[in-house]
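pasting for ref
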Amino acid sequence: MTVVRAQHRRRDARVNYKLFFIDAFGYPLAFSLISTSTIMPLLLTDLGASNLAIGLVPAIQSLGALMPGILVAPFLERLPLKKRLFVALGLAERLFILSMAGIVAIWGVAKPSLAVKLFLLAWTLASLMAGINMTVYYAILPKCIPIDQRGGLFGWAGALSGVFGIIGAETAGYILETVEFPRNFALLFIMAFVILIASLVQFIWLREPPDEKAEGSRSVKEYIAAASYEVREDRAYVWTIAALAVMAFAMSATSFYSTYAVRLFGAGTRDVGRLTAFAVGATIVGMPALGWIADREGHKLSLEITAACFACGAALALAANNVTEMYPAVVFANIGMSGIAVSHNLILAEFAPTHTDVPMYTAFSWMLLAPFRTGAPILGGYISDIAGFPAMFSISLAAGIAAVCIFLFAVEEPRRA
């Protein structure tokens, strides 16, 4: 009987790994077509939006991703199986993304200012759904994927999506150049929706082991109080939160590189497509390399490299004199984004003493980081409006260096704590 159970567990583990791999491949592939660092800023630029409005794209994404988790985490404690909730919330997120295609198609030419407002509203709702669902996702993941396979899963899936993402980004550039505005952008959002749906529905077959039900129930206030008590004595955790907060300012420049290339160097839609291809292609190197490092050495080292890449990207953007010289800046910045994708949430989950505690640690951490991840790109957009892009890039450079120093000298690797 024991042998049979072990065989079932191994089979379940293989199935679960494949399902998570497909999602980790499909989700970034879809966003290579509607990239928040190139395609969405270009769309808003074409609609006449300000730098502040462009800065709202990553700010809204961060706020939606980080804030709602603390509201749903207490409920997840009482839910032994979570995959159905995950699929339902994922469907809602994807429908809001589909609605963005309609907004652009209907009002992109007739009422561009209205299109900007409705686009940001739809993006806000999609990001809120994604944020709630991210808490569910990271409550399921540790039960299904062993700790020494998680970095590699995200790394290799990200690399594969990078290979296909280069084709996707080149396709996006071709569509932007050959299809008239605003149907070109609407078509990209429809294509992204189809891929996102395909990456979601397969979770119906996830073989999720049940959690033990928590005794009693806690309000959000009680949940936050319990989380505060659990983490406040953990010095490594506190410094990790500080480093990630500073890194929010280091990564804030990433969303402005394509706009900078358009406004300062006259980059066209085809150039933006190539910048997107370079951005996605950087994941081919960044994701598996940082995933391999994270699995073997820990996510701390991965995040040190991440912060250094953000600093390098900002320095190269400051030194650029033409569109071609912006390519290295985009590459380094997106290797940094690969590090965020691989290690940001997984290092937070590793501080949790048990699988059941993961929603509490991750949701509480996201709540702490939300003001920084949301405020940094808004501040970056404001500074670039009043003082120019170089001033904002300089702040990102300094923040990247500071984050590296905090990780190097103040953070202890949680696996060795």
